[in-house]
Write a structure and sequence with these properties.
Elements (H helix, E strand, L loop, with lengths): L1 E6 L6 H12 L18 H13 L3 H8 L4 E6 L2 E8 L7 E6 L13 H5 L12 E6 L17 H14 L5 E5 L2 H12 L4 E6 L19 H17 L1 H6 L3 H10 L1 H15 L12 H14 L2 H13 L10 E9 L9 H4 L3 E8 L7 H4 L1 H12 L4
Parallel strand pairs: 4-5, 4-6, 6-7, 7-8, 8-9
Antiparallel strand pairs: 1-2, 2-3, 3-5
Helix pairs in contact: 1-2, 2-10, 5-6, 9-10, 9-12, 10-11
């Protein structure tokens, strides 16, 4: 069930801003063995630079005014107040596209890519490639209400997005996403194939599991190499996901009490998962990261955002023997992405019609390489219009 949309403006109170700044200034930082190293997690050098900028060089009011130039709305969908940006396309026949962010992201991930997709002619493209773009905030992430009970996974959210798109009058639409947003998009294709023109992702969720019958279709050497890489990543870098997926509430107490603790937990991932040579600012401006972290802080629902991992663990993207999803799929593989399977692994279930190896970029493709990702999305959907 949905309730008609209402326009929304971001309006953080002066009291909340003052409290945040006081907490940032009063933060007690560590004295690590090596302040420049990220081997044990977010480096002191990076966290201190973020804290200094957040306390004295970051203008939330200017950021808020800029974000409010986007068309924000809130609809009540399946019992939750869901925030989304709905930007209409400029062109002869824009097609609808729902784009979903992940963790530790927000709708801010899509700010730079939005104009490239909605008004391509103004950015070196063709008006015939225009999209009507809908960017919802995941429940409990930033401006969307947190779930009031257990059971809200990427699978559930896909159904919510289908209801949202129907409310907006879109009977047929495309979906795009990375990280958790890729999972939501693939669940949409699985659950509502009649409504999807196509799905484009820049990540394949780690929970994706085709049913393997090695007597019929043995695992290839490339597929085995991917499975080995994924296991190694989980062993060496997957503690955050294991914690989110098992006991997220314990961590949430600390992150909801300390903005610098929250920032360190998040910026470690922005730093480790993006494609840069030691200068994170060169691909994702520090102000953008602070904006994203601030949205989590002001929401007060960090526990819900972490808990989505647990819900997804109970609802993996696992397929039965012979199950196929016939919605056209496009995949953009960025070189600094988390472990990605080979095309053959994905084709065990999905109808992969475009598979592109990108020259640079990482996990946060819409932030790091918005022009390249936008062109890939245009190219994939062009024959599906």
């Amino acid at each position: 069930m949905t309730v008609a949309a209402r326009e929304h403006r971001i309006a953080i109170t002066d009291e909340a801003l003052s409290d945040l700044r006081r907490r940032v200034i009063a933060a007690r930082l560590l004295d690590p063995i090596d302040p420049d190293s990220g081997e044990d997690g977010a480096s002191l050098r990076l966290v201190r630079r973020l804290a200094d900028r957040w306390a004295d060089g970051f203008d939330w009011r200017a950021t808020e005014a800029r974000l409010n130039r986007l068309p924000h709305f809130i609809s009540r969908i399946d019992g939750l107040n869901i925030h989304y940006v709905h930007q209409r396309g400029v062109g002869p026949a824009p097609i609808p596209l729902v784009m979903t962010h992940g963790w530790p992201g927000s709708f801010v991930e899509m700010e730079r890519i939005l104009p490239l997709l909605t008004d391509p002619a103004a950015h070196g493209g063709h008006a015939t490639d225009a999209f009507d773009v809908v960017v919802p905030s995941l429940p409990g992430y930033g401006l969307s209400q947190a779930p009031q009970s257990s059971g809200v996974s990427a699978r559930t959210i896909a159904g919510m997005w289908a209801n949202l798109m129907a409310e907006l009058g879109y009977d047929r639409y495309g979906a795009q996403g990375g990280d958790i947003g890729a999972g939501v998009s693939l669940w949409l294709a699985r659950q509502r194939p009649e409504a999807l023109t196509g799905v484009h992702v820049n990540y394949i969720p780690s929970s994706f599991a085709p049913c393997i019958d090695e007597a019929v279709e043995p695992i290839t050497s490339d597929e085995q190499a991917f499975l080995d890489r994924a296991r190694m990543f989980a062993a060496e870098n997957g503690a955050y996901a294991a914690l989110h997926g098992t006991k997220p509430q314990t961590l949430a107490y600390a992150l909801s009490d300390s903005p610098i603790g929250l920032a360190a937990w998040m910026i470690e991932k922005f730093d480790a998962w993006s494609d840069h040579d030691g200068d994170l600012d060169s691909v994702i401006p520090l102000e953008t990261i602070i904006t994203n972290i601030a949205l989590y802080w002001f929401s007060g629902t960090i526990d819900a955002s972490l808990r989505l991992y647990k819900e997804n663990r109970f609802n993996p993207l696992a397929f039965a023997s012979g199950e196929k999803v016939l919605v056209p799929l496009g995949v953009a593989v960025f070189p600094r992405e988390l472990p990605m399977p080979p095309r053959s692994w994905v084709e065990r279930v999905f109808d992969v019609q475009r598979w592109s190896t990108m020259p640079k970029g990482g996990h946060f493709a819409a932030l790091e390489q918005p022009a390249a990702l936008a062109e890939e999305i245009r190219a994939f959907f062009r024959p599906l219009r």
